[in-house]
Design a protein that fits this description.
Length: about 140
Amino acid sequence: MAWKWPGATKGASNEEWTGFIDQGVTLDGTLTVSGTFRIDGNVKGNIISEQTVILGEGAKVEGQIEGNRVVISGRFDGVIFAKGRVEIEAKGVVTGEVHSPCMVIDPGGIFDGRCHMLASSDAVSSVTIPIRAASTA
């Protein structure tokens, strides 16, 4: 069941919230969600979302994140694959690799690693390379 995050302002994103992991909760493994998901606890493993993954200030995550948008206010160590954008907020710390067409680091945010800027899915153009058969004559 999808729900609206408490305190969300009117006119904010229309994303459906799938749920959250609160402080004091530890997860070791793979988490797959269909909507926006918030983490304020400890996760070691993979997080896969079709929408947004939010790491709150209390989050400590080690592993891999795949999502459309990734927002980090806590600590992350690993690899991020974002189709949309990665946002490192003022208290966020990211160590590792980021693969995304857009990355935003707010003043105070820390990024230590490698960033691979990818073409956005909207801007991708196909290229056709002709292949000629070798002549047998």
